[in-house]
Amino acid sequence: MDILYIVSIMGVLGIFLVLGYTLIDTLSTLAGAKLTKIDLNFLKSLKISIYSSIASILLMFVPFVGLFGGVLVIVYLIKEEAQTTWKKAIITYLIRFVVLNVVIITLTLMALLTGIISVSELIYLLSNF
C-alpha cells in the first residue's frame, strides 16, 4: 500500500476525530447549560468549544498555567456567552466536565468491546501519560 494513501486516510480520520470531539464538547456544554437553566444555544456553545480548544493549545506552552488556565477560559467564556454569574458558570463547567468524560469513556469502552482498539494498544496509549 502506498504511504501517501495511508497518510491521506490518517488525515481524513484525524479531521473526523477533531470534528467529533468538537461536537461532543459542544453538546456536553449544552447539557450543562440546560441543567443549570442558563441561556446558551448551539452556536454559542460551539463558539465556546472552539475558543476553549484554541486557548488550551496556546496555554499548553505556558508553564504552571496550562490546565488551570484552560479551565478558567472555559468558565469565563460560559459566563460571557450566557450572561450569567460566576457560580452558574462554574456549575455548568463541572456538569460539562462530567458529561464529556462519561461520553469519552463510554466511546472508548465501545471501541474496546468492538475490537477497534485492542487492549494492548490502550495500555500503550495510557502508558505514555
Automatic annotation (TrEMBL):
Q: Where are the transmembrane segments?
A: 6-27, 48-78, 98-126
Q: Which UniProt keywords are given for this protein, alphabetically ordered?
A: Membrane, Transmembrane, Transmembrane helix
* Superkingdom of origin organism: Archaea
Protein name in UniProt: Uncharacterized protein
Species assigned in the record: Methanococcus voltae
User: Could you read off the lineage of the organism from its UniProt record?
Assistant: Archaea, Methanobacteriati, Methanobacteriota, Methanomada group, Methanococci
